[in-house]
Amino acid sequence: MATSNVSSVSLSLSDRLVAGILALMIGGFLVFGAGLANSAVLHDTAHDTRHSYGFPCH
Amino acid sequence: MIVKTLLAAIVAGLIAGVFMTAAQELRVTPLILHAEEFEGGEPAAEPAAAGHEEHSSLNAVSPLGKLLAFVSPITPAYAHEHEHEEEGGILFGMSRFSGTLLANLVTGAGFSLLLAGISLTIGHRITLANGALWGACGWLAVHMLPALGLPPELPGFPAADLGERQTWWALTVLLSAAGLYLLALRGELVAKVAGLVLIAAPHAYGAPQPLDISSNVPAVLGAEFAVAALATTLAFWIVLGVVSGFINDRVVKAG
Asked: Count of CB atoms within 10 A of residue A4's CB?
């Protein structure tokens, strides 16, 4: 919050929170789907990624 | 403006995901493929023993199983899925590499959005100057600290119940992230102590561990893999943080 003339903080506080919470929700969904979701198709597609990111899977 | 901020995070994540795929192909995937050769020697196990099924090294390797594994076009890592899931296979019939690339892009965008989301909600910008630090904290929270309890595992490694491990892992990531925030961005002594407690708590509780730690996969491979996985993810997070900072400085600011 030290800066005032740069944009992602020049978003108003409520816009910043909306953007932040949206980002957290979408990001959490994507990471869950690629990393943790218990679906065989997702698991097999993401197999090497899951292992190398150290996600606990199978 | 909100959309632009989110798009900037996604683009940074996609760039880091492409980078991660290259790093994985060089350092990590060869080890996974190598480990699957050992995993493939195991006979089909009892689906009833959920969580431990493909990890017993006590059972003898049947010659028939070996022959089948040799003839089958399905790699062992995919084959063992079919023991407890009726459907499997790679999305859209892609190759293994493109599946990994897709998963890395999705994961990269996901982690990038999470990082941006934290940055936006707590009101600390990610810039080119502090991007590497943001990335390093992400790596600590998502990879290094959870790995103290649950090291990155190769296919065929013994492991405790999946649900327990995922719960412990997710909670550790959340607590570590909160702890790092208190430790790094709060000035008060109380906050710093609380941060350390949050970081230490899941390790004091202890990660779920397998009962039987014997495995067909050589330990040396496991050690190489753990180091390779942590090193490539560290590189991924630093690229992610720096690219996010760069995009924030140049693109989002200009708008």
From this structure: 7
Q: pLDDT of B107-164, one tens digit each?
A: 999 999 999 999 999 999 999 999 999 999 999 999 999 999 999 989 888 888 888 9
- Report how many domains make up chain A: 1
CB atoms within 10 A of CB B209: 13
Residue numbers of the domain that contains B239: 2-159+210-254
CB contact under 8 A, B229 and A52: yes
Tell me which chain B residue has its CA closest to the CA of residue A16: B120
Please, what sign has the CA dihedral across residues B157, B162, B165, B166?
Answer: positive
Q: Is A34 exposed, middle or buried (0-12, 13-18, 19+ CB in 10 A)?
A: buried
pLDDT digits (tens, 9 = 90+) for B47-60: 433 444 344 344 44
Number of domains in chain B: 1
- Whether residues B229 and A51 touch (CB distance < 8 A) is answered with yes
Give the ipTM.
Answer: 0.83
Residue-number span of the structural domain to which A24 is assigned: 13-54
Residues of chain B with pLDDT under 70: 40-88, 253-255
Contact B54, B217 (CB under 8 A): no
Name the amino acid, one letter, at B48. A
**Crossing angle (nearest 10°) for helices B96-122 and B162-185:** 40
